[in-house]
Structures are given as C-alpha cells and as structure tokens.
Design a protein that fits this description.
The complex is a heterodimer. Chain A is α/β, with parallel strands linked by helices. Helix content of chain A is 26%, strand content 24%. The radius of gyration of chain A is 25 Å and the shape is globular. By secondary structure, chain B is mostly helical. Chain B contains 20 helices and six strands. Chain B has helices spanning 12-35, 42-65, 87-105, 119-123, 125-132, 138-160, 165-191, 212-219, 222-247, 250-253, 258-265, 278-308, 318-337, 342-345, 349-354, 356-367, 385-388, 396-400, 416-420, 442-445; strands at 2-5, 8-11, 312-313, 316-317, 371-375, 426-430. Classes of the chains: A alpha/beta, B mainly alpha.
Chain lengths: 470, 452
C-alpha cells in the first residue's frame, strides 16, 4: 500500500481531510484556508464541486442550469488551495489516521472532519422493491428523476415535510398530476401551529395537488414489468400512479463509520467543540449529534444555516483558540410553493403555557404573522411569518433584549423586510393587540431603513452602557 | 377539460392559447399585408392590425397565468427554445438585428421615401397624419413599434409579477414614460411645428443634445426651446444627481428610461442570459467607461466648434468624431447589438456595457447614494436564483452568502433578485445614516448571531 506522502513543507503544516463537500464541509474548508495554511482535502462521491442542495429542485424545474447552483466558481478551489477529490471513501482507519478511498487509495490525515450529511429515510412496506420508487436528496436522485420524468403519468408523494412539498412543486412545474399523502391532520402539522398548517394545506390544494391528510401508505403494487402501477393507502383507497416519491425525512449518513471506534448514536456524537470521542476527528453538519443540546433544541438540526455555522466555528476552533459551537437563537426559512415561511426563536406547533401567541391572518389567506411571548412577563420569544418577510437581525435583537410584546408591536415596522410599496399589516396587528390586551398603544415608527439603523445604534449604546455599569 | 385532436391532447388552457396565438398572427398578418400595399382602406387596416395582435397577445398571457396562484413563474425557462439560446432565440436575434440594420441604414427597403412613402412605412401614414399631420418616417414607425412593445410586454410583466407592488408600479412607470414622454409629447410638439424633444432622454444617453444643429433648433424656438435647453441642462447638473443620491440609479434605469423600459418588459424572458463571470465584469468596466470618456470628449469638441466656429480641435474633426459615435455607439451598439442580441446575450447588454448615462449614474451610485441591496442576516442558502435572474450580470449570491450588502455601480434596481429569492434574503433599501459604510452595514459588523 502506497501512502500519500504528508507534505512537510512549512513547519507544522497539517493535512486536514474533510469527508463531504456539502455546505458544512466547504464552509469549514473555506474558513480553514482563511485562518490557516494547512493542506486541505475535500472528498465527495456525489459531485465534483459543491452545489446548493436546496436548489436541486430549481434545476429540475428549469429555473437554473447545474452550473448556476454551484455557489463558487470552479477555479475558486484551486485558487484557495483546496484539493477536491471526486471519489468514494471506503473506510477510515482511525488508528493509523488514514482514509481509504476508491481503489484502496490511502490518504493520510492529521485531522479529519466528517461532514457526510444526511440520507433519505426509508421504511418497510409491501412492494418497496418495485421500480419507480425513489427519494429526493442526492444529485443522483435529480439525474434519475430527470431521466424518467417523461414517463411519469401520476406521482404519489409520501410525506408532508419540506422535501415532500418541494417534490410536489417540481412535478407541478412539469404538469405531472400529484397526490400527496400526509400522516398528520395538516401539512407539516408537527412543526407549524394549526392556523399556519391549515393555510399551507389550502395553498397546496390551490395548486391542484391532491392532498390526502391523515393518510399513510399501506402498500405499493406493481405491473408485470416490475414497475409501480398503483398504491393502496391505509384507508383502503387505491391510487393509480407510476411513480412514488418517499419524503418521510432524513437521517444522518454515517454508514462509513459504523462498526468503528467512533461513538455514534443516530448521528456522530460530538461535544460542544464538535470533537468526537477520537482525538482530531470532528463531525459537523447533518451527520453530527450534539451530546448536550440546550433545552428545547434538538441534538441534530438539519438546516443549511446550522451546517454553515458549524463549519465556520470548527475552523476557528482548529486554527485559533478553542471555540465552542453555540446553538444560538433558532431561525429557519423555506418557501412552501408560493408562500414564504420564516421563523425566529421559539414557535412550537403546540403553543402552551407559559407560552402564548398573538396571531393575525390576512383576509387573502396567504399571509400571517404570529409572535409568541411569555404569558406572565409578556416578553417576546419568537416570530413566525407566512408570506411575509421579516428582518432577522431586528427580530433577534428583540428576543435577546427581552423586549415586551407592546414595544415589539408598536415598532413592528422596523422588522418589515418586504419590497418597497408593500401592503403591510402593522395597523391591523396593532388593533388586534389593543383589543386582546385592552390597551391603546399606537404605532411608533414608519420603518424607514434609517430608523432601523437608529434602532441598532440605540440598542448597541444600551448594551455598552450596561456593560460599563457592570 | 380535455379535447383530442388527431391523437394530440390539449388542455383547455392550451386551446385558448392556440386560439389567442391565431388572433395575434392574424393581426400581424394584416400588418404584413398592409406593408405590401395589398389591401385598400389603410386607416381601418392599421386599426385592425394593432387591435387583433394586441388582443391576441393579452389573451395569450392572461390564459397562461389564469387560475395559477400568484408567485414567481420561472418554470421551464431553461427548457424553452426561446429563452435558452436555442434555435428560436437565434432566429429571433437574426430577425431583430436585420430589422435594426434596415431601419438605420436602408430605410428605403421599409418603403421610406421623403416624396411619398410606400410599403411598411406607408402603412403607418394614416396614424402619423392623425397624430401630427405629416407622413410617417422610419423613426415614426420605430417609435410606434417600440412603444407598442413596451405596453404589451409591460402588461405581460404585470400579470406575471402581480404579487409584487414594486414590480407593478415600476412597470406602469416605464409604460407611462415611454408612451407620454417618448411618443405622444414629441409627436404633438412636431404637430405644433416645434422640434422633436424627448424630455426624459438626458445627455449623455441623448448624445446629440449639445450638437450644433440641436442647440440651434432649440434656441430658434423661443421660450419653449429655451425651456427644453434649460430643463435638459438642469436635469444633468441638478435633477439627476439628487435623484440618484436619494434612490440610486434605478430612478432612471428601471423606472423612466426607454432602453431600460424595453429591457424590463420585452427583455424579461432573457434576463437569465447575462454573463455573470468576473471576466465579463472586467470587460464591462473597460468598455462602459471608455464610452463615457469618448462621449465627454466628443461633446466637448462639438461645443467648442459651436462656440468658436472652428471645425477642428487638436487637429481632429469634431464632426467626424460625432458621426463615428453616432454610427458605432448610437446605432450599432445600442440598437443592433443592444436589442437585436436580447435572445443571445440578455436584455441589458447596452445598459451594462455601453450606456454612458448608466456609467455616470453608476459612479454616483457606487460612491454617493443612499441605495444598496441589503442581505437579511444569515439566511442565504446559496441557491443562485438571484445571480441567475440578474439582468446586469451581478453575482448577487457572492455577496448574499457572505452576509454583505450589494453596492454595485451597474445595479439598476429592478428588484428581481429580491423577488426570486426563495428565502426573503434581499431588499432594495435607501438609507442616509450609513452613507459611506453601505457595503458593511454597521449593525452587521457585530451581529447578534455568528451564523452569517
């Protein structure tokens, strides 16, 4: 076995190998290069270059070409001395610090960063061996779907989450009739509060998608060629279709480290420094599972922003002083067909004491706002926007500064991030607040960008005053 | 509802689209017949030609979007032959460039004749007589078709982006300025035997503003002529800098300008074709600022000639320079390439690489304007929709994914990047407080989170 020589150029020049070229891996590589001079390898079997996974759907829908969803120009990596290896990792020898890639080619490392991401969840059901059943996660899934798309007469999507609705939108764009099977009472009802979940369910139906709620997949039947030709739901209904898309969620993709000394639960276990139980081996992104998540947060959060933050934090941790990854205020956003969704802070599906919320849905049935607050102190805890854009920094500042609801509602326009000339809802929301709380508060700002800047100047000054005081 | 015709199944929507296309083609057919002088009763003919083709066009687009929830409609942009540089795009480019070549250099083939028009130009005579009591010229024909295109494609654009008030107002604005300022007012001025004058066409886009003949023309027309001259100069020196300071160059480029108006409406289907490479950006800066220097030198020369009567400045004929600019930049670049290459290079080739007005406004926008596009926290998912649909070839994503604001000389503020963003990351904004710190917002320097 011939070992790839560690380059001993400059003193202390380390060789860092990153497995996975998704957003976690590439963000880590980018920051490692910014902060240090290590030799960096990034290995991926999926694609030669980093691409935006969330944008795969836009390639299928014809909004963009493949090269458009690659966030960096291809010469970016050579310019930044990041070596990309388009190959599969076969095994990792943690003892001798070697990664074995396809064809038993060894690659030695001083530090190893595992950023292997997720894979689609699957489950057992009669007929799951048939042709025409697929999930949608990898580049290869897109290529497969592109190939067979013309032959799809009717598609059934199993699962009511983000990938499910993406798939529905994709099929709609190619005029393929879609049935969506959702286990819950409404679309994404285990994440969205009832009003919002119902709004999206309605919106799905507006797109002429056959949405079947509280329905599970019972079995899939095939024709003589072994291809899907219908499904049977748990309600006994038969739906003719020749494609079934499984979108029931994702799990950490940790196959290559199964049965090694690396400690895993459902993901690779890491401490707050994103270190695994083996020295100089780290895990970031979807494949990592935090040993001690903070209260109310998950140990594995599969979101683009989390992966990006982890990659950046780890690079700082390796190159500079020890840096812990902090689960800062939760935020997420998505586009559910035509309705944009944004969440900041705590907005659970079931809003229970001590949490309470002030919700307003506009008459068009496509826009709503919900602010959650502590029932006793009236301190604002979270924001949930449907069909309306809010300014993340303002919302976060309000939550972190423990602002009370009345102040937030009076200054709500500071948070509006809609295009100019938008039709806002500030007055209605103020009115709703006043009725609910029997107050006569009024709107205090028109929300110009200058007033947003002033707001930040003020709150910064307040912070520095407080720290001087302390 | 489905109807089967010879084994091909059409949906109800497609049937209406086919019928509407038929009506539109009938209208265009009348126009061509009119061009060949086959039918009599010209006034009725031109009315019918425009009515049928307009109604067909509008019904076609209404039926395309009817019953579909409002939102971004870019499905299949890269599959359609017209918007992905395939054969229809090439055909269209050839037709458009040929039309411009004939219009500029061989108008007689359109039937233009000072002693009495024939052919396609004569077809427009009744309308021209109606508006200004004169026979049509090739420029009148061009003006009518140009305005007509902005109005029709403007309606299409509004239907497409009906969920965004910014897009609706902006499009109504370019439709209004084209119809009133570039078409109706100049025609009525001519009807009253006053010189042709498009108030919104400002130097240096209007490169002949300071030419001797144009100055004479204005100065010989009494008060209204002086007003044209003074308002033109005031716009250059005061109006335009103030408006650009307040709103960025978008006040002109995507709200008023006729070139921009056509690019935003008729060119909307081609915005994704602009080149986003760094190489293109470098080329853009070299070409556009060279043209700006050229137009400034040329204008200096013609003013020198006007004042002193000397035909040569530093041994160069100012008249010769003027005609070179008129041919190479005024006609070839802005017309033949600028519009003719829409289907191949995107809709803003002229605005991005050539327009000296855009260059001046751009310099001001970059260094002294309240305008910028802000990035919302750390929410960018690097999907690339913003960069793809930027008609000016700005790699918006490269800023957004690093949490930086976009302050670029070329940005015309069309707002499409913000519209197509699936995560609500971008917003066009004007603010005075951080005037010289717009790229890095002060509050983003110490963000509450470390996620961006």
């Amino acid at each position: 076995m011939e070992l790839t020589q560690r380059k001993i150029g400059k003193k202390g020049m380390e060789q860092i190998v990153i497995v996975g070229n998704g957003v976690a891996g590439i963000t880590a590589a980018r920051w490692l290069r910014k902060l240090g001079d290590a030799k960096i390898y990034v290995i991926s079997s999926e694609s030669a270059y980093f691409f935006s996974r969330t944008a795969l759907m836009y390639v299928y829908m014809g909004h963009m070409l493949w090269k458009d969803i690659e966030p960096y120009p291809r010469d970016f990596y050579s310019k930044n001395r990041i070596d990309l290896l388009h190959t599969k990792v076969q095994s990792i020898d943690f003892q001798s610090k070697i990664v074995l890639t396809e064809g038993n080619k060894p690659l030695a490392y001083d530090r190893l960063i595992l950023a292997t991401g997720s894979k689609s969840k699957s489950f057992d059901f009669p007929g799951n061996h048939l042709k025409g059943i697929s999930s949608f996660y990898y580049k290869q899934d897109l290529e497969h779907l592109n190939q067979i798309s013309d032959s799809i007469k009717h598609a059934v999507i199993v699962g009511g989450g983000l990938i499910g609705i993406e798939l529905a939108e994709m099929f709609c764009s190619r005029n393929i009739p879609v049935t969506m099977l959702v286990r819950e009472t409404d679309y994404w009802a285990h994440v969205l509060p009832e009003d919002e979940a119902r709004m999206i369910s309605r919106h799905i139906q507006d797109h002429k998608i056959d949405l079947q709620l509280e329905t599970r997949l019972q079995a899939v039947m095939g024709d003589e060629t072994g291809r899907v030709n219908k499904i049977i739901t748990d309600k006994g209904a038969e739906i003719n279709c020749n494609f079934v898309a499984l979108a029931i969620g994702v799990v950490p993709n940790i196959d290559i480290v199964q049965n090694t000394h690396l400690e895993c639960d459902h993901g690779i276990l890491v401490n707050e420094y994103l270190e695994t139980n083996i020295e100089h081996v780290y895990a970031i992104g979807d494949c990592a599972q935090l040993r001690d998540p903070i209260l109310g947060r998950k140990a594995t959060e599969t979101a683009w922003y989390i992966a990006k933050a982890m990659g950046k934090t780890l690079a700082h941790h390796i190159c500079q002083q020890p840096t812990a990854y902090q689960q800062v205020l939760w935020y997420n956003s998505a586009k559910l067909l035509d309705i944009e969704y944004q969440v900041y802070g705590q907005v659970p599906a079931q809003i229970k004491y001590p949490l309470n919320s002030l919700h307003l849905e506009l008459p068009n049935g496509r826009q709503s706002i919900r602010i959650t607050y502590d029932h006793d102190t009236k301190v604002v805890k979270g924001f949930l926007l449907m069909g309306f854009r809010f300014r993340q920094d303002v919302c976060e500042r309000w939550i972190l500064n423990k602002t009370v609801l009345e102040n937030v509602v009076s200054y709500i326009r500071l948070a509006f991030f809609e295009p100019e000339f938008y039709k806002g809802f500030a007055r209605r929301y103020m009115k709703k607040f006043n009725i609910e709380f029997g107050k006569s508060a009024y709107l205090k700002t028109r929300g110009s960008f200058d007033s947003v800047l002033k707001f930040f100047k003020r709150s910064k000054k307040k912070e520095s005053d407080e720290s001087e005081h302390n | 509802m489905n109807l089967s015709i010879i084994k091909i199944t059409f949906t109800f929507r497609e049937l209406i689209q086919i019928a509407a296309s038929g009506v539109m083609i009938f209208g265009i057919g009348l126009m061509i017949l009119g061009g060949f002088q086959i039918l009599e009763n010209k006034l009725l003919l031109i009315q019918n030609a425009f009515a049928y083709s307009s109604v067909g066009f509008i019904i076609y687009w209404l039926s395309s979007y009817w019953g579909k929830p409002a939102g971004i409609k870019n499905d299949g942009v890269w599959f359609k032959a017209v918007s992905s540089r395939k054969w229809i795009a090439w055909l269209l480019a050839i037709v458009l460039t040929s039309f411009y070549c004939i219009l500029y250099w061989f108008p007689e083939y359109l039937g233009y004749n000072e002693k009495g028009n024939t052919g396609f130009v004569a077809f427009f005579d009744p309308l021209s007589y109606y508006l200004k009591n004169k026979a049509a010229s090739q420029w009148f024909v061009y003006g009518v078709l140009y305005t007509w295109a902005i109005l029709l494609f403007g309606i299409k654009f509004i239907i497409k982006y009906r969920h965004s008030r910014y897009q609706i107002l902006r499009t109504l604005s370019v439709m209004f300025f084209q119809t009133a300022f570039a078409f109706i007012i100049p025609e009525f001025l001519q009807r009253m035997n006053l010189p042709y004058h498009d108030y919104k066409n400002i130097w240096p886009l209007n490169y002949y503003f300071f030419d001797g003949w144009h100055l004479d023309e204005m100065l010989m027309n009494g008060k209204i002529g002086y007003w044209m001259l003074m308002s033109g100069i005031l716009m250059i020196l005061i109006g335009s800098p103030i408006l650009t300071f307040l709103f960025g160059k978008r006040w002109y480029c995507s709200w008023i300008c006729g070139c921009g108006g056509l690019a935003e409406t008729a060119g909307d289907a081609f915005r994704q074709l602009s080149d986003k490479s760094v190489k293109a950006w470098k080329l853009e800066r070299i070409i556009i600022y060279s043209i700006l220097l050229f137009v400034i030198a040329m204008t200096g020369g013609v003013i020198y000639t006007y004042i002193t009567g000397e035909l040569y400045l530093l041994g160069i004929s100012t008249d010769k320079i003027r005609s070179i600019y008129g041919f190479a930049i005024g006609a070839t670049f802005s017309g033949v390439i600028g519009v003719g290459f829409y289907p191949l290079l995107g809709s803003r080739v002229w605005c991005r690489f050539g327009c000296p007005m855009a260059a001046i406004l751009g310099i001001q926008q970059r260094f002294f304007s309240r305008f910028r596009i802000t990035t919302n926290g750390g929410q960018c998912i690097s999907c690339g929709n913003c960069s793809s649909y930027c008609e000016m070839g700005i790699d918006v994503r490269s800023y957004a994914q690093n949490g930086k604001n976009i302050v670029r000389a070329s940005c015309v503020g069309c707002g499409i990047c913000a519209a197509v963003c699936p995560r609500g990351v971008l917003k066009l904004e004007n603010g005075t407080i951080d005037l010289f710190n717009r790229v890095e917002n002060p509050y983003l320097k110490n963000p509450p989170t470390t996620n961006s």
